[in-house]
Amino acid sequence: xxSPIDRQxxxxxxxxxxxxxxxRVVTLFIRSLFIYTLFKVAVFASLVPDILGHEGFxxxxxxxxxxxxxxxxxxxxxxxxxLASVTLAxxxxxxxxxxxxxxxxxxxxxxxxxxxxxxxxxxxxxxLVVMSVWAIALxxxxxxxxxxxxxxxxxxxxxxxxxxxxxxxxxYWISGVDKxxxxxxxxxxxxxxIWHLEFKINPGLAHFGNPGLNWFLSWLTIVFELAFGITVWxxxxxxxxxxxxxxxxxxxxxxxxxxxxxxxxxLPYLCFLNDAEYDQLWRPFKRRPR
Amino acid sequence: MNGRAAHTxxxxxIGWLAAGILGLHLAACLFFAVGSWSKQFQNSxxxxxxxxxxxxxxxxxxxxxxxxxxxYYRYKAKHDAWxxxxxxxxxxxxxxxxxxWRYGRFTRTVYLNRVANDLDRHVRRRINWSRAPEPLKQIxxxxxxxxxxxxxDSVSLIAVRCEYDIxxxxxxxxxxxxxxxxxxxxxxxx
Lengths: 290, 190
Fold this sequence. Notes:
The complex is a heterodimer.
Chain A: H1 23-45, H2 48-52, H3 63-68, H4 74-77, H5 79-95, H6 100-116, H7 123-134, H8 147-180, H9 183-187, H10 189-194, H11 211-231, H12 235-256, H13 259-266, H14 275-282
Helix pairs in contact in A: 1-5, 1-6, 5-6, 6-7, 7-13, 8-11, 11-12, 12-13
Chain B: H1 3-6, H2 8-34, H3 39-42, H4 45-54, E1 67-77, E2 86-87, H5 88-98, H6 103-125, H7 134-147, E3 152-165, E4 170-181
Antiparallel strand pairs in B: 1-2, 1-3, 3-4
């Protein structure tokens, strides 16, 4: 099954305005962001004493910030009321079909949550904030009325999708170039250090590795991060690139206990697929009729 | 003229607009990621936006890889003796490894390590604080909350940075700071 863009019925620059046959994948991606944010709420809930030990957050006084951080004022009433309200809003949005209102709500809740949990944030939270912003224009529901409005709706969704793809590629390129310029990474010593990172490395893997393996893994990381942004655009290499990416992040997640980072890097991979490719992924796991 | 043909011009116009926006965004990403040569542009509103909201990473930088900070504390309740030193990060990490599904414990390990390093930066900057620095308050809050003792008389802190030496295949230890404070004095000038 080919997506409309592959059928060449709308070609050239106008293809940016056409449906890309990815409405299910888009829905799945937005829902996965809601589930991931719920996971982060659970993590932050377990860290409430630490977060409250912080001096306290300041909310900017400009009118936009005042409205944006309105939910955060619940913390002054009770921190658990704030977290329960965020959880409830996320759960309700998760049940509903993703639309512009739930996408905006996700972005607002993510900003409020991260302002609240500022002391304990890490790189994965930064990625989620960015994704939640770009996901605002992603939904294709409610369907716009009139042909021109539908064209605008599809264009906005497609642009968001491409921006998310660029975002993922940029994360890899920035990290890849940084590693390429680092003698510690080029020599493989980076992995020698990683095996000895006391409070991050999985105890089962501590002191693992040898110079040859370290060199190989270092270069594998650099090559993957730099090549991802190229190979993912080609239909022939896309699925294998994404599969390698999933393996890459699962390995990092298990090795360095970075479960949240692994998840938030894998979820946007959905944006590189259309519905047909997504179905193709699951085909080997589906039972064939006898 | 059918419906599709009627909208061909509109599609092309919107398509070019979208391509222009994407091109500008990509150019801005590359410019702000690479163009550290111009501080004027980096500090501008778009520069701040791109650096804080768009350009995530780089992750796993070489500067941070060789080091781990061990952070020890002990305390003395009023009319009581000093407790033994507890390795804060080690105890949290061990607790996480016993129950890996409680992911917050791992996040707490990373957080406490960061706070200990932040405190080191304050210690290096100036010894006589006019006001207790924020990381010290955070550590104090953690200790008071976790011990459950309200009337702690004194707390003693030691931070040791361990650098892994590849050649020696061992760790070199360096004490970052060591001091004792009274929790009741935290809000008052030192």
